[in-house]
Amino acid sequence: MNHSYKGKILISTPDISGDIFSRSVVLIIEHNESGAFGLILNKKNSQMSSKFKDFFDFKIEVYDGGPVENDKVFFIVKGKRVTEIYTDITDEYYLTEDIERIINAVLSSELDINHIKIFSGYSGWSSHQLDTEVQRKMWTVVDVYNLDYTLPNDQNLWKSIMQNLGGEFLLWANSPEDISLN
Question: How far apart are CA 94 and CA 73, in angstroms?
Fold first, then answer.
């Protein structure tokens, strides 16, 4: 492996599988010889969202981070490091699993709820698996361009990024979700 996709965005290529990765936007948190770890930024999980309502007195969205270990919860946080257990994503964002500390920081107003995004599960690839998937054009790798990782996002994020890429990506951006209908 001569390169790393760490800190980059993966845009899924439209396919007919209809799985969790269909029309996904994935932020790669780690990528090395051992494999890759990332979170899907644009797939809301309504079931987990309703469970988190028990912690807070207001509605909060939880996102499907990926198909691996859906019982694990991850947070992308913007700004202040309120826990010692974290992984930097950029100077402005970090990832943590410290659920107790994040919930306490939100409840005590130490953290603004709008500066966190909650994920259930993650996306993982074994050694060289992601490289192979990129070579097979299952993913398009995009450098990050002023994307706020904590904003609420849905399928419009995938379409918007595809449109910004232009060229053949415009065709994909405007294709129906079930491409067999095209």
Answer: 14
What are 10-42's pLDDT values in tens digits?
Answer: 999 876 566 889 889 999 999 999 999 999 999
Q: CA separation (Å) from 101 to 54, 84, 177?
A: 16, 10, 39
**Dist CA 130 CA 109 (whole Å):** 39
Q: What is the number of residues in the chain?
A: 182
Within 13 Å, how many C-alpha atoms sit on residue 7's CB side?
13
pLDDT tens per residue across span 114-170: 999 999 999 999 999 999 999 998 999 998 768 899 988 877 898 888 888 887 777
Q: Is the pLDDT of residue 172 over 80?
A: no
Give the whole-angstrom CA distance, residue 118 versus residue 101.
13
- Which residue carries 């939880």 as its tokens? 62
What tokens appear for 179 in the block?
Answer: 């491409």
The span from the CA of 138 to the CA of 158, in Å, is 14
d(CA 52, CA 113): 13
Question: CA nearest 94: which of 78, 83, 111, 72?
Answer: 78
Q: Closest by alpha carbon to 82, among 114, 116, 53?
A: 116
Evaluate if residue 182 carries a pLDDT over 60: no
Q: Please name the residue that has the structure tokens 């913007």.
A: 78
